[in-house]
């Protein structure tokens, strides 16, 4: 009979300073989605498109499924999806909901790109 190893619980890293090794990207974004739904896929495609075009690929995007990693959803206090968080540069900013309005998205996240109305 196999016995399970007593492994320590996985630690959840609380939001904190951005490690030096990831500061090469101008922007660090985290997108929280809920499963493999059409809405989640649309959000992922939209944010990847924004990173590639409007941010000229100068960003690092982490896509986090709250069903696969609920500890990260708790640590980041995610209450609705999709939620896009701009981790770097500081201050941390959040955008919850429809990601189709790019001007509103960039203004809310305080991201400056050519042709955007954000400050």
Portion in beta strands: 15-25%
Q: Based on CA inertia axes, which overall geometry fits?
A: globular
Radius of gyration over all CA atoms, rounded: 16 Å
Mean pLDDT: 79
Given as residue ranges, the uncertain stretches (5+ residues, pLDDT < 50) are 1-15
Level-1 CATH class name:
Alpha Beta
Approximate helicity band = 10-25%
Oligomer: single chain
Distance between the termini: 63 Å
Say what the CATH topology is. Answer: Glutaredoxin
- Count every helix, treating DSSP H or I runs of 4 or more residues as helices: 3
Number of strands: 4
Specify the CATH homologous superfamily. Answer: Glutaredoxin
Per CATH, the architecture is 3-Layer(aba) Sandwich
Domain tally: 1
Give a short account of the largest sheet. Answer: 4 strands, mixed
What is the SS-derived class? alpha+beta
The sequence of SSEs as H and E is EHEHEEH
Main-sheet strand order equals: 2-1-3-4
SSE topology:
Blueprint: E1 27-33, H1 38-52, E2 59-65, H2 70-75, E3 83-88, E4 93-96, H3 102-109
